[in-house]
Amino acid sequence: MAKKPQILLLAAPETSASVLYGLYDVLMSVGAVYLDMVIGKPGDELLDVKIVTANGKPFRCIGNIPVEPHAAIGDVETPDAVIVCDMYTTIYDVPHGRYPREIAWLKAIHAGGALLSSVCSGSLLLAEGGLLDDHRATAHWAYRDMFQRHFPKISFQTESVLCLAAEGDRIVTAGGVSAWHDLVVYLIARFCGYQVAIETAKVFLIGGHAEGQSPYAVMTRPMESNDGPITGSQEWIAEHYATANPVEKMVERSGLNPRTFSRRFRTATGFAPIEYVQALRVEEAKQMLEMDQISNDDVGAAIGYDDPASFRRVFKRGTGMTPAAYRKKFQRIARIAQPA
């Protein structure tokens, strides 16, 4: 019998049980469960799936859920693929130096021919190891600023749920924790074929995230405590985002010349001033579209856009969806969360 493709799940105490065990359940079922459900007779498992950690010892992951790894990373040969599960860190806490053994191992097995993939914050390990340098990559949208500040050689793709830009170099990154759905379908198709991937998706009702991350992304707005004029501008625009000529007014209030203001604002926030205003307005519009019943044009006017076309253009650029499509999607979620 031919050797099964081996996929290793790299985990740590900072890993979500939903990601680790969700991946494990789906990958272990490939080839077996679909036939069992359709004809009442299980097929052969097509993948060799193992959970690995730095030391191979039992531990508890997020939520105090017990995990018993199959092996330590030093005890396994180069696999066909590794999935770096999410390893949670706050948006302020770059995990430099936290996973040296794991990163060294990832670099070694990648050099040996393994495909590396990551879910959510798992891409931070690939980033720290330099494996994503000069590539486009993704993680959860909340880590955008962290990547831009600490890993400038990486082009962070906020909108992507599954980023295949570095696929040719055997690296694939996935966005938020539920993006493992998209990643697992990709890996099954790659190692077992398209039809098996479709069958597995049918078993688990995995539909993917065709619209990307952008509709879910929320603007992160950390206040820059070391630059008083910029912090003051952030505080002011948070209450006056609908005002006319907002950037001009922020510059006037700051006492800085426009060029200096723009440079310091970008350094502090990661946004150009007008981008910041637009992102803030879109966030306010999203909240209104999610819950309110006023017209789309009235939403645009309420946040500072008298021209409906301008509102639709800015909103779609920020979310990947028109205001009408966004309203339909998230009010449907609201009805599920708050049934009549």
UniProtKB/TrEMBL annotation:
CDD domains: GATase1_AraC_2 (cd03138)
All copies of domain HTH araC/xylS-type, residue ranges: 231-329
Transcription regulation among keywords: yes
SMART domains: HTH_ARAC
InterPro entries, per database record: Class_I_gatase-like, DJ-1/PfpI, Homeodomain-like_sf, HTH_AraC, INH-QAR
Pfam families: DJ-1_PfpI, HTH_18
Annotated keywords: Transcription, Transcription regulation
Gene3D superfamilies hit by this protein: 3.40.50.880, Homeodomain-like
Single GO MF descriptor: DNA-binding transcription factor activity
SUPFAM superfamilies (alphabetical): Class I glutamine amidotransferase-like, Homeodomain-like
Matching PANTHER family: ARAC-FAMILY TRANSCRIPTIONAL REGULATOR, TRANSCRIPTIONAL REGULATORY PROTEIN
Protein name: HTH-type transcriptional regulator CdhR
Organism of derivation: Roseovarius gaetbuli
Gene that this sequence comes from: cdhR_9
